[in-house]
């Protein structure tokens, strides 16, 4: 006597388990549709906002829209525009392609900056000497606008915001907007600025303050600059008027960075709480 047929549940195939640091398949497909990729995708370290891989001779960035803050907007369109505009200059990586939420540029071989602040001062001076880049956002300029921005995201518990007199009109120029050690790469051809997701036209003192920031140096390099390193940076920056304006605005510029650190710490981001008091000096 034949046995009755057994009812079989439909077979399902579990999707492959990808390593945590592996790029999502849709990203590999999207980038590969615009430019040939040779070699494996290797995760790169350094960024605190987005995920980045090296794929052949490319660096591919996948943006995290939730990481944007009032001080650092993390704008993929702005980064693509800046890289396309600067691609012929030895300041930034060469733009390759971009898509929804991602960007590919030529990989910059080298290590994150750790020493020789005078070289960074010369690099930023070269950038700021280009003048404004039409199409970028306008950054807050002067004590009133900077103060309004800082108050918009300040967290309770900070000391009162410094009140400063206006040092006078500023000729806007392109500002990187995130000139921290992790975004400065020491390559065989010299220093290069990466991570252009926060650029704008404004006062170059913004870049000076971010590079000199004790909090940002701690977070990205492990220790603030020494007094001698700070002095070497300011002495090497080519525009003395900008240096003088930075010195006048420094208490407010660094208060704004401390407010940013408080904003990140309130969201649970590691390391920022310890950096607040360091920034306030």
Short description:
The protein has a single domain, classed as Aminoglycoside 3'-phosphotransferase, Chain: A, domain 2 (Alpha-Beta Complex), CATH 3.90.1200. The protein is 37% helix and 14% strand. The chain contains nine helices and ten strands.
Provide key terms for this protein:
alpha+beta, 9 helices, Aminoglycoside 3'-phosphotransferase, Chain: A, domain 2, 281 residues, 10 strands, globular, five-stranded antiparallel beta sheet, disordered N terminus, three-stranded antiparallel beta sheet, 37% helix
Note down, in words, how this protein is organized.
By secondary structure, the protein is α+β, with helices and mostly antiparallel strands. The chain has one domain (25-280): Aminoglycoside 3'-phosphotransferase, Chain: A, domain 2 (Alpha-Beta Complex). Helices cover 37% and strands 14% of the residues. The chain has nine helices and ten strands. A five-stranded antiparallel β-sheet has the order 1-2-3-5-4, with helices on both faces. A three-stranded antiparallel β-sheet has the order 6-8-9, covered by helices on one side. Helix 3 runs parallel beside helix 7 (227-236), helix 4 (142-153) runs parallel beside helix 8 (240-266) and helix 6 packs antiparallel against helix 9 (272-280). The longest helix is centred in the last third of the chain and has 27 residues, at 240-266. The N and C termini lie far apart (90 Å). The relative contact order is 0.14.
